[in-house]
Write a structure and sequence with these properties.
Blueprint: E1 29-30, H1 38-41, E2 44-45, H2 72-81, E3 89-90, H3 91-97, H4 103-111, E4 115-117, E5 120-121, E6 127-128, E7 134-136, E8 139-140, E9 152-157, E10 187-189, E11 196-203, H5 206-213, E12 221-227, H6 233-241, E13 243-245, E14 248-250, E15 254-257, E16 264-269, H7 276-283, E17 288-296, E18 299-300, E19 309-311, H8 314-323
Parallel strand pairs: 11-17
Antiparallel strand pairs: 1-2, 3-6, 4-5, 4-7, 7-8, 9-11, 9-19, 10-11, 12-16, 12-17, 13-14, 15-16, 17-18
Length: 324
């Protein structure tokens, strides 16, 4: 249990509300019994105009009761006609949505001259249209359609893995444990140190990555910290009040001792600065011997073994979209 200091804990996602769809009226015709008079043989139509209207929630129906189900060929045509990218949008944002990398990575690539639009080297701030031809390092970029499915996975990283795609020292990388993604690539939402374990998010949507890692959204993380020695009451109080580091003041959202030994703490924080948890304790004279991220953006390690991943549900993805 993490003790509250001055901020609210992340809210759990609420249950998704299903849309109300208008019901289809029953047949209004009824045929008379054969063999009777001409009058009785005539077909009598039931008057349905006096029926009370079906109550709805006030939300528009997604589909009219009388509209026919679209054929497979119609669906295929709609996909073919879907725009490849929104019109007149910043280049780095379009590339991020295409799954090439995060928005910041794309900004660096543009500044380095690695991106071309219509055979011309792009500049940071350029805007593109749906029909523009975009190349990154000589490779044509397939722009993300609005119908392309956003995918997000949660990975429980063990110690001893790096968050880069490759390593000159030959150390194992987290990407070696992720499922293949045809035509796109996984982008990590933040990083964890080589010796830090715990939850990492990956997505094919660089735009989502940019939002979830931006400081203004204050996405919460919870860590289980193990120290090299007992923490004094005075140092614990100082930690809770915040410490001044070389790159600025930092204060945890909550902190609490785990157990009675005072060697372990649970700490909740929204800052994404490099090695921020370890540096806070180092500032107070403690070494973090083990660090595990046990919760991220309201998601936990429940039923997710170390070194394994799972795909997020549509409900969980919708909750992440609300955060960012």
């Amino acid at each position: 249990m993490v003790k509250k200091i001055n901020r609210d804990k992340p809210e759990k996602p609420t249950k998704a509300v299903k849309p109300v769809v208008a019901g289809k009226p029953k047949s209004a015709e009824k045929k008379a019994v054969a063999g009777k008079s001409a009058k009785s043989n005539a077909t009598h139509k039931r008057d349905v105009s006096d029926r009370p209207a079906k109550a709805t929630s006030g939300k528009p129906a997604y589909k009219s009761a009388s509209s026919p189900k679209p054929k497979a060929t119609q669906v295929a045509d709609e996909k073919k006609l879907a725009p490849a990218a929104p019109v007149d949008e910043k280049l780095q944002k379009v590339l991020a949505r295409a799954g090439i990398g995060s928005r910041r990575e794309m900004e660096r690539a543009i500044e380095a001259g690695q991106v071309k639009v219509n055979d011309k080297i792009a500049k940071l701030g350029d805007r593109v249209m749906a029909q523009d031809k975009i190349f990154v390092n000589g490779q044509r970029v397939v722009l993300r359609s609005e119908l392309t499915r956003r995918r997000v996975i949660l990975y429980n990283k063990p110690e001893g893995e790096i968050c880069s795609r490759s390593d000159p020292e030959g150390r194992p990388t987290v990407y070696g444990h992720l499922p293949p993604l045809k035509g796109e690539r996984w982008i990590s939402v933040g990083r964890l140190d080589f010796n830090t374990s715990g939850l990492l998010l990956f997505t094919n949507d660089g735009d989502m990555t940019a939002k979830l890692t931006h400081p203004k959204f204050e996405v919460r993380k919870v860590y289980h910290v193990s120290l090299d020695k007992k923490m004094s009451t005075e140092d614990y109080r100082t930690l809770c009040e915040g410490v001044e580091l070389a790159d600025g003041f930092i204060k945890p959202d909550a902190a609490e001792f785990v157990g009675t030994g005072k060697f372990e703490l649970g700490i909740e924080i929204h800052s994404g600065k490099n090695r921020i948890v370890r540096r806070m304790f180092e500032h107070l004279g403690y070494e973090v011997v083990k660090l595990d991220r046990v919760a991220f953006a309201g998601l936990t390690k429940k039923d997710l073994p170390r070194g394994k991943f799972r795909f997020l549900t549509e409900k969980e993805i919708s909750f992440l979209k609300m955060l960012g």
